[in-house]
Amino acid sequence: MGTSKQRWRISFHKSPSKQPPIPIEFVCPISGSLMADPVIVSSGHTFERHCVHACKSLSFTPVLPDGSIPDFSTVIPNLALKSTILNFCRSSFLDPPKPINFLTAENLVFTLKATRNPQNLAKDTARFNGVRVIQSETELNRVPSHISTSSEESVTPRSGPTYYSSSSASDVETLNPNSIEEDELLVKLKSSQISEQEEAVISFRKLTRTREETRFQLCTPRILSALRVLITSRYVSVQVNSVAALVNLSLENRNKVKILRSGIVPSLIDVLKSGFQESQEHVAGALFSLALDDQNKTAIGVLGALPPLLHALRSESERTRHDSALALYHLSLVQSNRAKLVKLGAVQALLGMVKTGHMMGRILLILCNLAASSEGRAAMLDGGAVECFVCMLRKGEFDSESTRENCLAALYGLSHGGLRFKGLAKEAAAEELLIQIEEMGSERAKDKVRKILEVLRQKDEEEEEVDWEKLLNSDDDISQARISSS
């Protein structure tokens, strides 16, 4: 009994000093506090919403620790990160963060602006007199340590962010790495000599190829900033090895969000569009790797990766084609990216590739995701997907049983298309074919077939009197009218 009471005491009276460190990805670079309403901006960085609005209101752009400058032109909610933060708080017995109000955010931004340009402090204060109030000297000097106030130095706050006040020395070292290995590598990466840059990225690539802990330790803002410059180098070896090293860094799950937030994705997209062929192979792999993290999916789509990834499906490089398809599969798990792909005309392009047998298995996976959304279903039904899939099943020319199952899964996704799907399925004589597959297919295939047949056999009084030919023709007329008006 004594031992049991001890356990309860330990469980409920956890010492504040044992509080787990807050991941840096959860902290707003401007407020220095845990984010309650995180948003992604165009450059891929994430901030507290009101901090972004305050920066735009005061025409102020902060300089981040890696020297990058965020782009506030587009702001979208980072719902995945918000959910992750709330889950972290629950598991760590922390109160969920509360959004800072706009006035507080404006005070913080004004402070940053005044600290960067102290000679303008009196003028700016006078301009805001009567509109805003500097709350205290402590607030005025509270500049987050990870925001640079000039190109050469950063200001250490008198009172650091609340959530880091009890961090241990090891936590601080993790958040602000300054190892000898990192410094030596940076010197070479930032060298003006191409030969030294080449030597550095080749060495970095080898270091991160197999050493997992090295991937984590050297994935720092300073190194990511240096890589961002070298990734777009006009020298083949420097560009290729820089992107390959980044792929190695992205293999560590703890690095995926950090890499995206560094603002490096736009540079990767530029290389995918017009870089060297081997570099494009590595970029496709990097985007695939980064897309595996749910927090990155929406942002990668917003940053413009979808069009070049679609184009890369036609690349001469097999590796580029396959990794681009995998990247698109994972990105299309998010509804916002599905809608973007439909607007880009991806459905017709993907169906065309399936008909020619081009990467059939992986393309069908993407189409399965698109069929899960109303926009994707409509575009696929209009594009002849039902007839295409039924024809493929009838011929049975699949490279594997899993590809056959993917085809049935895509057809099942379309079966949620209501009367439109039933009419097209009836026209393609799908029911007879599906009955045959149900008798001889794998268990997974049989399961999908049974579900599709259930949809086809569901009838009510109104449906029994439907003139399918008239319905199909009317839908074709509607589609033509949409095309004419667009």
Automatic annotation (TrEMBL):
Residues 21-95 form the U-box domain. SMART domains: ARM, Ubox. ARM repeats lie at residues 263-300. Residues 143-174 are annotated as: Disordered. It is an enzyme of class 2 (transferase). Signal peptide: none annotated. Residues 146-164 have a biased composition (Polar residues). It catalyses: S-ubiquitinyl-[E2 ubiquitin-conjugating enzyme]-L-cysteine + [acceptor protein]-L-lysine = [E2 ubiquitin-conjugating enzyme]-L-cysteine + N(6)-ubiquitinyl-[acceptor protein]-L-lysine. One of its GO terms (cellular component) is cytoplasm. Its EC number is 2.3.2.27. The keyword Repeat applies. InterPro entries: ARM-like, ARM-type_fold, Armadillo, Ubox_domain, Znf_RING/FYVE/PHD. The keyword Transferase applies. Pathway: Protein modification; protein ubiquitination. GO terms for molecular function: ubiquitin protein ligase activity. Pfam families: Arm (PF00514), U-box (PF04564). GO terms for biological process: protein ubiquitination. Keywords: Repeat, Transferase, Ubl conjugation pathway. Functions as an E3 ubiquitin ligase. This is RING-type E3 ubiquitin transferase.
